[in-house]
Amino acid sequence: MKINSLCVIGLGYIGLPYAVTFAAHGLNVHGVDVNPRVVQSLQAGKIHIHETGLQDVLDEALRVGRLTVSSQPVEADAFIIAVPTPFQREKFGEYNGIRFKLADMRAVASAAEAILPFLRKGNLVILESTSPPRTTIELVAPILERSNLRAGIDFHLCYSPERMLPGNLLYELVNNARIIGGITPESARAARDLYKTFVQGEIHETDATTAEMVKIMENATRDVNIALANEFARLAEKFGVDVWEAIRLANLHPRINILNPGPGVGGHCISVDPWFFVEAAPEVSSLIYQARKVNDEQPRFVVEKAQQAFGELRNKRIAVLGLAYKPDVDDLRESPAVEVVRLLQKDGAIVRAWEPFAPSAKLEGIDMAADFDSAIKDVDAILLLVSHSQFRSLDPASIASKTNARIAIDAVNAWNLKDWQAAGFSLHRLGDAKSK
User: Does the pLDDT value for residue 436 go beyond 70?
Assistant: First the structure.
């Protein structure tokens, strides 16, 4: 299928890289976002997210004149839906006493409805947003068929999951293997023709529901493995062990690869997507549910570590380093670090946070420092929650000269125990009972 024009709905961490990359490779691309700030920023030639190299690709797309941006779709040969699919904040599901989170599919439904006036015979529509199984055929297809065109007959319809890691989006966009699930084989082939514009990784064709399940399986697998590591950290604290030493030794086994524990699981994928399985089939997803429960409870375990250091958190002044959900990105979505801050505040601590990758971020009820030095000034303790490169390389002797704090808490195993002790700090590491 020959595609000359593309409309991308949603210009966030996934949609924007797609839009600018397709434009830079010769397609006429129109990007759509409902956020006026995003539209205005891109129209002015400036990206609104932190991602290495993305500004350069946007500059190239604008230079060749193949990218336009607005709040409304236009007619195109193909449409990509790349909008968020968070869980609902106000509503929960329940099964046999188990309470679970529900997917919020309103943005996907709105995006499909926005395409309706512009859908023409022969078009290709691809859903990229991570979605519960059967979303493509049971939610998107019926909406689009209100055009009186039949999915899989009059227009092509596919699901193709994004599988990219923030911080490395542009490389993975091009080089990762791609799964294309068509509601018909012809639909999958049409999407394959589109992605081959720049994708160099292997492209695998399947049906839409299988493709939806693949994406959730990937993130659920990571979630379960992280939950296991987090439980190991709790067990190590109970048995007087350093979990980091235990994991290093266990991983010497040729068939063992235990992940690292931490303050929890965040981001728009791993902390959200496994709930889609629990929602769709709670009777056969008990392991996935338990992993979600463990990881959602992990911020409380971090707070308990802080309580061990102080004995009492009320009125203790704590500098929190890092609010992003993972190292070296500006993405704060579903971040466990933010939850740790709120729990500390709930227990009476006075918290000041510093996030170097999102220095202008505004989070309700959280005191955001203007810079690192102001974050650690006049505090009782320093709590590391995100292993940003610049935090890992901190010199504890230099830190000691800038703050009165002599308690440091490391939730990500980024700091050397002996170095911080030599600088006069009492360093408490998550999952390390030996350092008490």
Answer: no
